[in-house]
Amino acid sequence: MSKKLTNQWFIIVNPKANGGKLENQWERIQRCLNNNHIDFFVKKTTHPNHATELAKEAIRNGCRKIIAVGGDGTGNEVANGILQQKIISSAEITFALLPVGTGNDWIKTHKIPKHLKTWIEMLKSEKTTFQDAGYVSCFFHEKKVDRYFINVAGMAYDAFGVQNAEGKNWRFPKIQYLLNALSGLFKYKIHRAKLIFDKQEVVDFFYIINVGVCKYSGGGMQLVPHAIPNDGKFALTFARKLSKLAVILNTYRFYNASLLEHSKVEGFLTKKIRVETMDDEPTGIEVDGEYIGETPVEFSISPKALKILIP
After folding, report:
1. Contact criterion met (CB below 8 Å) for 131 and 235
2. Beta strands 191-197; 200-212: pairing state
3. CA-based nearest residue to 10, from 51, 47, 48, 46
């Protein structure tokens, strides 16, 4: 690929996506792209965060249109490459996700199709819009971590659930995400934390703290049902201490956008958030389904920072 500007799509493929099934699916996908006369160049990832490195390299070499092939984690890595690079404004680069992952949650907000032929028709139209990006700073084993996210960040029990799910290959993700979440109830120890936003301070035991740019996570759950992807604000949801029975009885609220109607759950819209440790154990954090660290953590919003391909 030349270092001058190119109109090619640069495709970053995660062969381990969808429980490793993408390795076998890629040949069919590539054949379909060729049959539709899509001009593209491909590289496959070989290690964690490789997609971020490849996206940065592609931009340095003149690429302005990048496709991530994989799940929400692959999409997050590619988006980080676009948002972290300093060569040009991230808003000048088109990001697309061909969803072949396990949860495929980010696409639900934007109604991006999973059917390949329908997705290729979307690709050919090159219709785009802009969405916000979240920026998070936290710590992992006392080392500072800075990362963007484009969907939902989760803390407390949500982060514990992601850790508990790591390495599992799920055939029926929606059901298995839920079963994983419920089974973890009997292992998780709730921690106290301080939540700071909009000049408010809330100190309590939190069951969940979720920070959303988009609405869906955990295989279709709506933990931030009030999220709007381009309003320049985070959707913040937090639930105070709940009994295990209360969680089980209110599981339906995770999916029908009624979570904020529960008396111990609150929702806000805000631009900046800080969460601090208040007891001996820090509170964990995951972003876009990947565990990245623990408190203290700060969130800030980058309005309309990512140009995305939509139907």
Report:
1. no
2. antiparallel
3. 51
- Residue 2 binned pLDDT confidence (cut-offs 50, 70, 90): very low
Amino acid identity, position 186: F
Best CA proximity match to 213, nearest among 196, 228, 225, 198: 228
**Amino acid, single-letter form, for residue 233:** K
Assigned CATH for 9-101: 3.40.50.10330
Distance of alpha carbon 183 from alpha carbon 190, whole angstroms? 15
C-alpha 174, offset from chain centre: 16
- What single DSSP character describes residue 101? S
In 271-291, which positions are buried (b, 16+ CB within 10 angstroms) versus exposed (e)? eebbbbbbeeebbbbbbbbbb
Q: Report the predicted TM-score, pTM, of the whole model to 2 decimal places.
A: 0.92
Residue 79 tokens read as 């988006």
Q: CB count, 10 Å around CB of 30? A: 16
Work out the average pLDDT over 271-281.
93
pLDDT score at 162: 84
Does residue 225 contact residue 215 with C-beta atoms inside 8 Å? yes
Neighbours of 118 (CB within 10 A): 12
Q: Note whether 152 and 105 are within 8 A (CB).
A: yes
Domain boundaries, the chain: 9-101, 134-302
| Residue range 134-302, CATH number | 2.60.200.40
pLDDT of residue 105: 95
Average pLDDT, the chain: 92
Q: What's the rounded mean pLDDT across residues 144-173?
A: 82
For residue 22, name the pLDDT band (cuts at 50, 70, 90).
Answer: confident
